[in-house]
Amino acid sequence: MMPMKRVNFITAIVLCGLTFASCTTESIATQPTSKPNVSPSLTETPFPTITHTETETSKPACQPIESSTNSIDGGLLFYEREISNLDIITRVWLWSANTTSPQLVLEKVLPAQIYLSPDGRKLVWHQYDSDNFTTYDLISKKYENYPWKTEWQTITGWTKDGRVSILVDYKDIFGKGVTRIDAYFDVQTQSFMTEVFSLDLPGFTEGESSRDPQDGFAVKDPTNSLVLYTSNEGSLGKLILMDIKSGQRLWEETAQYPFYPYPDWTSDGDQVTFALYKDNHSTIYTLTRDGQTSKDIGEGIPPRVIREIKWSPDTSYIYYAYWDTVQTGPAYLINVVTKETKEICTSDYDFLNGYWRPNNQIAYIVYKGEQDQPGIAELRILDVKNWTGKTVFQTATNKNQLDKLNFLGWIPLINP
Description:
By secondary structure, the protein is mostly beta strands. It has strands spanning 9-15, 26-28, 50-51, 63-64, 75-84, 87-96, 103-109, 114-116, 122-125, 132-137, 143-147, 154-158, 164-173, 177-186, 191-200, 218-220, 226-231, 238-243, 249-254, 264-265, 271-278, 281-288, 294-296, 306-311, 317-322, 331-335, 341-343, 350-357, 361-368, 375-383, 388-397, 405-411, 413-414. A hairpin with a 2-residue loop joins strand 21 and strand 22 (281-288).
């Protein structure tokens, strides 16, 4: 058994009104020596809602699928960007199983980051320097604006229970750990709460100025009880799985720079997959949450750095992509049980990124074209079981604009 190490782990919850100055905090130690005092309950002050009068009348609204319909009959939401008069025009498209081609559901000047809610019904974004952030309902086609706090940095997505997640502050200290402050905005009650998360990670490798996984990472499991992180211990470095509450190391393995890519946990948190770069090549592992069972499933991987790795919804497959050029490279699919490996697209196309949809089908984007010459980006759907695919969208682009096409998510909505 790995030696036990003491971990200082503090989670402070702050229920807030309209200003941070009016908030109070309560810090709770992991293992208090005595029963902590109970703070008075705090009242959340609602944010005012500003509803837009504009609607997207020229475009069909999305419709929810019937409750008896299989979830794979929903739709894939993705976006296409185009620069026009210094503005970035974003077109949001919906491809659903009941149609032969995607339909346009939203066309608007939008920021670089837009996020889809977990129920697949709303988008959220914040325009740079705007006093508000905005949600858009895909069914009712209504916009709602909410005031943006100056202390907030950026929207980072949605929580599983449907709150908007906003980064307030983040600090990582080389060799020690991380402290992160997030705000969670409830669009139903129009109020927010702030969470301060501090975690002691002995030997943590990521420096304060870095936001790149190659320099190190700390990734929690879906239950927020385990963390897989990079350490500078040893002659090369280590990857460590640790129990957050007790500080017990459940598993560790020698690893070296670059630490690519971010690990990917299964949705239930039972397993994690990751790549280790050592001896001048990458190796793909799976690891159980107790740290007892690790498997090397990446036999025959070329000596390149893996840039992306993802579980399939049923954990039968893992897809990974590595760099052949600065931005792109091929991608492969591994059967976790048999270790059979197949290349997802032909070598005359560059794989950009992928997104698993239900029933073990993978949507992915590829690019074909020469440097500094017009090329084509395509969105494809691959049926992994039958190994058949089709192209569902195509747009002109070039290698300087490879982020023109990207995914928002799989949603329980269809075109009318």
